[in-house]
Amino acid sequence: MNRSTITQVENRSIDYVPEGERHARLRSQGPFWFLGNFHFFTISIGFVGPAMGLSAAWTALAGTLGIMFGTIFMAFHGSQGPHMGLPQMIQSRAQFGYRGVILALLATLFVFVGFNVVNVTLIMQGLKSVFGFDPTIVAIVSVVLGALLSIYGHDLMHKVFSWTLMATLPLYAIVTAALIFGTSPAMAVPAESMPGFNWIAFFTQFAIAAGYNISYAPYVSDYSRYLPRHTCPKKLIATIFVGASLSGAWMIGLGAWLAQQLHASDALASLNQVGNILLPGFGNVVVIISVLGFLPIISLNTYSAMLTVLTGVDSVRRIRPTRRHRIIAIATISMVLLGCTLSIRSDGIALLHTFLLLLLYFLVPWTAVNLVDYFFVRKGRYAIAHFFTPRGIYGAWQMRGIAAYLIGFVAMVPFFYIVDSGENQEIFVGYFARKLEGVDIAWLVGLVVAGVVYLLLARSLDLRAEEEVIRTVERNGHDFRGRLP
Predict the structure, then answer these.
(1) Per-residue pLDDT, 7
(2) CA angle 87, 93, 94 (to 5 degrees)
(3) I need a labelling partner for 151 at 20 to 30 A (CA). Which of 101, 113, 412, 472 fits?
């Protein structure tokens, strides 16, 4: 990755990345996904358990197990990037069809925009609490900077992630060391009021942490598709898994401790408190660097939302993606994001809790269908050119994938457990969720049902005929604008 590519606006979007342009390196994936979880948003996830009466230790354990579980799916999706050289949602046309993929696109667009609504809300609340900054101005600046970085695209984003990791890692290490060695403002919590253990809180914390990293599934290969095709899948999976799991477990554990000992409900405010106890003014430095280091995460979601929007537009009306299309899509997404953020007046942590559960419900059936197809049905064998036309072997509509997604989603509904933790009010509690007294296993039901249904329906696929087409494409070449050999 040379200096000239970093400062240029990326030319690719939803189109195939030829081998000659695969300039990324495997070693960049670990730090990239480490930083993906290494910020105050993840710290906020550690507040959920203590708010429900779960001790910091049990919260850290549930969060770590959940993060590791979710990262398994994320990492396996990441291995598809170098093999196929395509954004994740273009690949989903094999399971849902050229036009049918719009169903999955709606779910993933909800994830990308929703994540950024929560991201910007947390920044607004944190900077208002610490510095008294005007939330509207904070929102505008955050969205604009995130949009600019996502316009420049893949190379600059990877570089900025490296820079921010170098800036934030020492600060979070100092704060963590202060907590471990007792130089922090720990409060004396009476033994009778100490949080303990309960299954509802444990499984809720597990599900939220799992959903957090499963949420990377629709776009992890967006950032691995510039790796050479010969990249070892096992090494890539391991690299992504280690990077995303370590930082996620660290930050959730840190958040759990801050919630239990300091009754923290705002990650930035609590980091400011701990930092200023160590050294007057140091807390302000931690907050400023934390926010600056978090802005690339906003660009991460905006960039993948752009790929999703362009895929959706292309599925309805064929386009030849250009830089102009990318910029228009990013500008539109950013305006929608800003409007949603300024119109929603909600507690950031309560919004986070509800949103992470909802995105888990929407994503689980999709990730099950996509991974089952890639690893068990078609086993990585695809005709790349046929992703770009409704006349190819994947067709306009693939009812197997659509049916499996819908059946998996419907199967989850009786297990839904959605509550507004800020108002302590039920939003929707399914029949079986009530019988289980709030233990949320809806995501597990959706994962199994969607995956099994798709595996059964895929038995009717004529894979031999597909293989003949794939060999013809590989032998004769292909035009990635959809003209087939």
Answers:
(1) 64
(2) 110
(3) 101
Q: Is residue 451 part of a domain?
A: no
Domain containing 111: what range? 3-349
Alpha helices in 24-153 (DSSP H): 29-37, 40-45, 48-51, 56-78, 80-84, 88-91, 93-96, 102-131, 135-152
Mean pLDDT across the stretch 132-145? Answer: 95
Buried residues in 350-360 as b, exposed as e (16+ CB within 10 A): bbbbbbbbbbb
3-state class (DSSP) for residue 420: strand
Number of domains in the chain: 1
230 burial (CB, 10 Å; 0-12 / 13-18 / 19+) is: exposed
- Overall residue count recorded for the chain in this entry: 485
Alpha-carbon distance 217 to 31, whole Å?
17
pLDDT digits (tens, 9 = 90+) for 257-269: 999 888 888 889 8
Cα end-to-end distance, the chain, whole Å? 33
CATH of the domain at 28: 1.10.4160.10
d(CA 326, CA 303): 9
113 torsion bin: left (phi>0), alpha (psi -120 to 50), beta (else): alpha
- CA 86 to CA 226: how far, in whole Å? 9
Whether 117 is covered by a domain: the verdict is yes
44, burial (CB in 10 Å: exposed 0-12, middle 13-18, buried 19+): buried
Residue 40 has pLDDT above 80, yes or no: yes
- Nearest partner of 24 among 215, 225, 222, judged by Cα: 225
Q: From CA 333, how far away is CA 257, in angstroms rounded?
A: 36
174-223 pLDDT, tens digit each: 999 888 877 555 544 444 455 688 888 898 899 889 888 888 888 899 99
User: What is the C-alpha to C-alpha distance for residues 127 and 21, in angstroms, rounded to an integer?
Assistant: 41
Give burial (CB, 10 Å; 0-12/13-18/19+) of 74: buried
